[in-house]
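Morning!

This is the sequence you dropped in the shared folder:
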Amino acid sequence: MGWTKIIEYAQPEIKDVILVQGLPGLGLVGKIAIDYIIVEKNPSKFAELYSNSLMLPDGKAGVIVNMYGVEELPRYEFFYTKTELHDVVFLTGNTQPVSWAQYEIAESVLNFLKNKFGLKLVIAVCGTVARGMEGKVYIAANDDKLLGEYSKKYGLQISSEGSVTGACGLLPGLAKLYNIPGISLMGAVGQIYPDPSAAKAVLQVLDNILKLNLDYSHIDQIIEDMRRKAEILKKIQERERIETRKEAERREPWYYI
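The structure's back. C-alpha cells below.
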C-alpha cells in the first residue's frame, strides 16, 4: 500500500497558480533550471512531499546524506513566488518516483495544488536527446490549441511523435484529465553529463513566459566551466589513444617467431 505525506510549512496567499516542475532526468536539465530559479529569485518554500515511492537514484529505499553528513529523505519541495502577471509554484526534488508510482505521485501533486489554490497551467521541464540541435527547446502539450499558441509565441520546436518519459511527460498528460492545460518543455541535450547549456535555453523560455527577469551570469559561468572541463577530458582521452596506439606498434606481432 502506498504511503505519501505532504507537510505544509506555510499557507501562501496565492491563487490560480502556474506549476513549474523540474526533477532529475536526462542531462539534469529540469533540475538545474528550477534550482537555478530558486537560487536566483529566492522563492519561499511552503511544502514538502514524502513518499515510499520516492526511492534513491539506484531504486533502493534509504536516505540521502548531504555534504555535511545530515540524512535527508528523498522528497519533493514546493516553492512559490509572485510575478507581475502570475502566482507561480516551483516544484523540484532530489529524485523521481519509481515507474509504477508515477501516476500516484503526479496525482497527489495536482490534487494538492488544485484543491488548495487553483491550478491554471502545468509546465514540466526536462531534457531530450537531440544531438546537433543544441540551444533548441522542444514543446509537447496536452492540447493542440495550446501547442500551436506556445510554439509560435515563444519560438519553440514542436516535438513530433515519440514519447516523453517520467514526470516531465506524465504530469502534463495527467493534468488533461483535470481539464488543466499542460506543456512539456524539453531542452536539447548534446552530452551525457549535466548540460547547463540546455538548462539555460529552457530558462530563457520560462523567463519569457513568466517574466522572471533572471540574471544569467552565474549559469554562464557554469557553462564555461563545463566547457573547459570537457576540453581537458577530450585532451586526456586523445593522449591515452595515442599512447595506446604507440604501445601496440611497439609490440611484436603475435605470430613472430
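Headline: Residues 217-257 form one domain.

More detail when I'm at my desk.
O.
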